[in-house]
Amino acid sequence: MKLYPIEAGNFKLDGGAMFGVVPKTLWSKTNPADSNNMIDIAARCLLIEDGNRLILIDTGMGNKQSDKFFSYYYRWGDYTLEKSLAKYGFHKDDVTDVFLTHLHFDHCGGSIQWNRYHSGYEPAFKNAAFWSNERHWKWATNPNRRERASFLKENILPMQESGQLQFVDDPASDFSENSPLGFGIFFADGHTEKQMIPIINYKNKTIAFMADLLPTAGHLPIPYVMGYDTRPLLTLPEKEKFLTLAANNNYYLFLEHDAHNPIITVKHTEKGVRLDQSFTFNELF
Questions:
Q1: Is 70 helix (H, G, I), strand (E, B) or coil?
Q2: What does the pLDDT read at residue 147?
Q3: How far apart are CA 137 and CA 159, in angstroms?
Q4: In what order do the strands lie in the sheet with 184-188?
Q5: Measured distance CA(112)–CA(158) in Å, rounded
Q6: Which residues in the chain show pLDDT less than 70?
Q7: Is residue 3 within 8 Å of residue 47, measured between CB atoms?
Q8: CA–CA separation, 272 and 210 (whole Å)
Q9: Which of 26, 105, 203, 279 has the smallest set of CB atoms within 10 Å of its CB?
Q10: φ and ψ at 35, to 5 degrees?
């Protein structure tokens, strides 16, 4: 097995929305804002090469939305999904599986693209199965008013229409040790219904792809919960349980949205679980 970090593009989000009720005087210490109150955000995906399978976890925003849409997110930097795959000698057609932690546009938008005639949509990964879970799929395709702007039908429905959609089994608990893709999954409901957190054993290390359970290292304190979370009072115990597990077992937390801390470890302190070390991917592997 080999792992590759795939940078799908950087953007900015409102710092207040990213930290909910936490005052700016606190969150700006770890996530400084610009003059528009926007903070740096990454769309960092993960590619797993395992035998004949090439598994991509999340796909970023993609590039098919309008200029007006993207103007809200202040994209910056030169990263793209295609260039990042090519850096390691891969093409989108090589990907056999796309595992989507959840179906918010910044996690799955790159899964679907315009067709060659710009008249409709098609899977960007023509040879891949798209993996979600049934409970989250139902949640996303019949969205509540709170999340409707994040679940875009053009990002989601073509997966099913193409016949490439598959579901992992609904969990009996919040953790499934074995999935069809060869890694464990922690299921969390605070951010959205049945968000999936992959847990991968690699080179004698446990790598957890944190998605929106822990967006940035600045979100480590348990009450630092995004305003985007639909059930923040569920996020609190989910974060506490997972971060305690991570500190106890020296997990390496792969941060999808932290533009400046790609991978971190955590430790127990008098104030709770806090940052231990921060690494780039190359420093670890």
A1: helix
A2: 96
A3: 11
A4: 175-176, 184-188, 195-202, 205-209, 252-254, 263-269, 272-279
A5: 7
A6: none
A7: yes
A8: 19
A9: 203
A10: -65, -15
Tokens read off for 245: 């597990």
Rounded Cα distance between 192 and 217, Å, is 20
Of 197, 162, 158, 176, which is closest to residue 46 (Cα–Cα)?
197
Q: Helices H, strands E: what count in the chain?
A: 9, 15
Read off the amino acid at residue 52: N
d(CA 143, CA 78): 33
Both tokens assigned to 254: 């792969």
Cβ contact 229:211 at 8 Å = no
Residue that the structure tokens 């790598």 belong to: 207
Do 96 and 105 touch, CB atoms closer than 8 A?
no
Yes or no: say if 254 and 263 are a contact pair by the CB < 8 Å rule. Answer: yes
Instruction: Confirm whether pTM is higher than 0.90.
Output: yes
Other beta carbons less than 10 A from residue 273's beta carbon: 21
Alpha helices in the chain (DSSP H): 15-19, 24-27, 67-71, 81-87, 105-108, 134-141, 153-161, 232-249, 281-284
Per-residue pLDDT tens digits for 61-106: 999 999 999 999 999 999 999 999 999 999 999 999 999 999 999 9
